[in-house]
Amino acid sequence: xxxxxQNPKETTxxxxxxxxxxxxxxxxxxxxxxxVVNLLMFPxxxxxxxxxxxxxxxxxxxxxxEAREQAAAERRLTLAMARSQLLDNYERCMxxxxxxxxxxxxxxxxxxAYHKDGGNGIMTDLREKIVMLPTEPPDSHRKSDS
Length: 146
Fold this sequence. Notes:
This protein has 146 residues and is mainly alpha-helical. The protein is 78% helix and 8% strand.
């Protein structure tokens, strides 16, 4: 208990236990309300955060998949172009009957890149045939012999 002087002639005694109980009684519902609000809001906030992150992850996954598809399409295109060039070189050399040193070098580099990138064995068969061709035209031997 505390003694409080309200005026110099009067002294009033004040009981803290009553004030403490009433203060606790006043604050308790507020604390309970705050706790309930936190319990209710936490799942909602967690759901919102998960949804935001999930949306961003979905967007990231979609862009990654699109990039992979684009890379695969570019790879297929590169293989198709290399195959076409190898076939053209093969047909041209077979038609003329020889396979020059420069053509061999270019063909070999293109074939190696094509094969390394997943090209099929058909080009290997054609390569084995084309390397059997002479490096000079058949007519050049006759002209130099004369």
